[in-house]
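>> received
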Amino acid sequence: MEFVKIQDSDSLVRDLSSGAVINTNTTDYQNYLARKNSSKDMKQQIKQNADKIKQIESDMSEIKQLLITLINKER
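>> returned
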């Protein structure tokens, strides 16, 4: 593979065989991966919280129905 440095950039090169632009700055790449993983973890946490909220809503509905049943039995 033969690379040519891209003008006005210290860390970008073009692969002449494929035409791809490649970032040679490994620190930038590691930072990108860290942000991507953090975003993925945050989305997973949001989904878990939404699932917990749905379960709590279901439990509250069940408790409400049980209380209504108890009140109706006492009358």
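>> Residues 3-74 form one domain.
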